[in-house]
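Me: I hope this is not a bother. Any chance you could explain this protein sequence and its structure tokens? It all follows right here:
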Amino acid sequence: MPDPKPLESWIEATERITPEAPSPEPIARDGEKPILPLWRHARTADPPKRAKPLIDGLLRCGHVMTLASKSKCGKTWLAILLTIAIAIGGTWIGRKCKQGNVLYVDPECDPKSLDNRFREVALHMGADLSEVDKRVQIMPLRGVLTSAGKPPNIIDVARAIESAARKGEFDLVVIDSASCLADGDENSSSDTRRYFAAVNAITASTGAAVVLILHMGKGERGTLDAIERSRGSSVWGDAPDAPLSLLEILPPDGEPSDYLEQGERAFVLEDSGLREFPSTPPVHLIYRHPVHRVDADGITDGWTPKGSPRRKTKAAIDAKRTESNERAQRCCDAIVSWLLSHDGHGNRLGAKDALGIASEALGANIKYETLKSYVRQSPVLEVVQVGKQRWDIVPAGVRQGKLATD
């Protein structure tokens, strides 16, 4: 392990980069052929070995993972937890991590506060602090400006790392947060692709995996598919090998404090499709400063994100059930009244006629299957199937126009 590089060396490396420097992407001039790699034969008979997993079943060395959540959900603490898990070869969200060296790039946090955050999490995990200090390096960029007087962007950081870090020096690079290093419009697909080109340059020059900490947009992101939750262009969800999202979850009835200890909050960590591994089941986490732990006791089973269409309170569920029962009773009462006043029909009413009677009773049209469900709930009516697509309604105990005998 080389000697830790002081902040000045990172700044010096960064300041050597100016915004006027050419993009790392190969760009052809007008009239020239684009510079692209030539094609080659597939290697199915003798395929190359894949990179080793850094996080079992989730992320390989040299690949990219994103972690998106809304503000104040503890995503930085979760990223620090991952950093220390890699440094000591521990577990993160229940998954074994390969021990390695980490570079933590932070354009937001006060460097002194960041060191103390690492200490808090390391002590909570029971980690060897000397091992953490040996294996974790921090690149604090808060307040740093390039020679052009601008905050560094992702290309500046990629080039600074390439110029100062040896291949294999780091196993993981964490960028917290990714949006602070964006130079362009995060809603632009082309700008976001350039961003990921610089991120991929980091993986290529170091061999390390990169984890980007992202912000979700405003509003109820739990109502969206996991891949759509990150703020900005859809490329933020498409480009990573392992896109993850962290959402706070709430119980279907009552308040979280009815189930959790004081100061605890519950979250679900979901992926939106892993490129290298099968998709994983959502992981329920309980956060109590400063760490998230896996809910191994099932306390939060059945909890869903705020705003999720699947999330309904018990009162809402009971109200919906009561409304449905009342509608069913009105339909069946109307059908019973019709049967009692029409003896000549042999205690039998076809589905089409029954649907008209029920719709008139409700003042709204209903579907055949809904009516059939209502009748099956009734203790005084029954459904009789008289053909593949045809059914009638009769009083309970009546079959083929005759009373059933016991």
